[in-house]
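Hi R.,

Here's the chain you asked about this morning:
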Amino acid sequence: MAKGLTKRQEEILDFILHYVETEGYPPSIREIGQQFGIGSLRGVTVHLDALERKSYISRSNTPRSIKLTHPKFTPGNSRVTMLPLVGTIAAGTPITADQDVEGMIPVPSEMVKNVDGAFLLRVKGDSMIGDGIMPRDLVVIRPQKTFHGNDVMAVRVGEEATVKRIHKTKGGVQLLSSNPDYAPIEVDPTDTEVIGKVVGLFRDYEGMSF
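And here is the predicted structure, written out as tokens:
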């Protein structure tokens, strides 16, 4: 038995390790509960809290955020971090709520080592090609509410996320493209939310059309 762990804590730790090694990303709290017949999410988090206090794992407030931190249990692919790929972003809900995550994507840990809660968005359209951001690129988003004039930001408009620059006007807010074919977009500030800054990008060249 691992030092300082109860039998159930060690079982959960072993399950997390096996899941990461076979799937490439950690299990969700719900999946841990199903594996061990624990009927409530709180029943699972009690054990995860204990593992975190004992420095075997760390967690953030995003789905599948469990990270093995004890040297004895750290898997060999620690240079990779799994980030959630987010689709719909509804107002009033956590950005990476389980129902909004389309999948988990591996990214180099070095890229997000100082970023808490980072996630990915898939770019739609060619409105930001002037910044080298192409359709279907995956952009890494660092959650933040503040922005400067030259920052490329992820913005929620309604229940969709878009990548634009932001300009405040006397009448409201404009979203600015870097493609001259697109005019500024006037948006309703009450239905618009800045959700983060673009800090990285991944591209699938095989999926591109020229």
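One quick note: The radius of gyration is 20 Å.

Cheers,
M.
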